[in-house]
């Protein structure tokens, strides 16, 4: 064992490590993670997907459950989890978006701390836990989302780590609860976590496998039943079924990772940078070391081996899922906890086989560069795009203060403008346009006509070039472009008057040039 592990007071109790005194490194791990994310700042671009969940949270506080306020296909918790950030901001008089982003930064910090706790528990070593925490901290894509949310994948990773912790400690009901919470946040968490439970529980519970699996299933039912009860009490059970299940089953047609490998590889490099090699190396190490442990008679029946094998099962099922659906680097988030476990397993193997001085040196060679990489990226990648987005909103609404706004793929603008969309339909990509076509009277043409009939003062379209052209044709000549901002294009109704339109453009130009 390494120096940290040797100094820890622990006993073996029912397959879990119980630490008899507070681990002083917990505070240090949390502080480093908090500082790293804080350096990244909260001024990054407010894009469509975080806008969905921020808008959804605001609608929840207005009394509209998830899927009722805005049609979406992620889990209902993705809409509910930003609510504490909004409430805290309102109580303290702060900006709601910054409240949500700060809250999600705390969730991201908790992920790093949990990576330490989980891997420390698996291998009974603080040194190994530090390597895993540093690995989790180093993932550039995770740093990016930590302060540019709210994004559903951050709490999904948190619940995945919690499920792994519960599995490691053989807390079967809690394992099920966290699997349920992860799935209710984002459905793609279910296949790997389910595989981990199916493989890991029998190896850990042994002759109590049936009972343990039953408890996992029962635990998973707790958040599901609570969610169903909430929607039923709100009169929105049909919306839950549609948003969580049917929209995905009927209208989502994923693309295999093999359909465009070069594009996916480029996306992964852009999303994770140098930390991509830790991600890939951690997953590869996980598979190799689990196989080695299974091949050794002395370690085959150890709980650590069971958790590694369960993590491999989760990884393989996750990889199989990418053959069905994988769009970009953010879809790799379910692999992050298992990559951190894999890097930790490497250090644990070194501890097992080499003197403590060597193992500490190897661990340091992982922890220090990974931490410095994270801090460097966080500071270097800090952005202030949000200021430009806010400036555009201010410039437009300064001239049309009571404007009604129709959002087309631009929920983030409604959040910044504190406006509500005329309908719950704002997203029209990746199959949702077909859902609208099947459910709205007259299809997409009827939908456009219904909105135009209400003569919104402003229309904001998500700034995708192809979608921009399509929607410009649908909107027609009654509206004219008055402003462009990162992620959005603004149209104003011509009947507002030439003076108002000219004033919007002039004010926007003044904001952009700093006059």
Number of DSSP E strands: 6
Radius of gyration, in Å, reads: 25 Å
Question: Approximately how much beta-strand content do the residues carry?
Answer: 5-15%
**Average pLDDT:** 91
Q: Going across the major beta sheet, what is the strand order?
A: 3-4-6-5
Q: Supply the helix-strand structural class.
A: mainly alpha
In N-to-C order, the SSE pattern is HEEHHHHHHHHHHHHHHHHHHEHHHEHEEH
Count helical runs: 24
Number of domains: 2
Residue share in helices? 55-70%
The major sheet is characterized as: 4 strands, mixed
User: Outline, from the CA principal axes?
Assistant: globular
Distance between the termini: 63 Å
Q: Give start-end ranges of low-pLDDT stretches.
A: 1-20
Written description of the protein model:
With 515 residues, this protein is mainly alpha-helical. The chain has 2 domains: 3-380, no CATH class; 385-513, no CATH class. It is 67% helix and 6% strand. The chain has helices at residues 3-7, 24-40, 48-61, 77-80, 83-92, 96-123, 126-138, 140-146, 153-168, 172-185, 190-205, 209-233, 237-251, 261-272, 276-295, 303-322, 336-353, 356-380, 385-399, 411-417, 432-439, 443-453, 465-475, 498-513; strands spanning 10-13, 16-19, 405-408, 458-462, 479-485, 488-493. Strands 3-4-6-5 form a 4-stranded mixed sheet, with helices on both faces. The chain has a two-stranded antiparallel sheet with strand order 1-2. Strand 1 and strand 2 form a beta hairpin. The model is unreliable at 1-20 (pLDDT under 50).
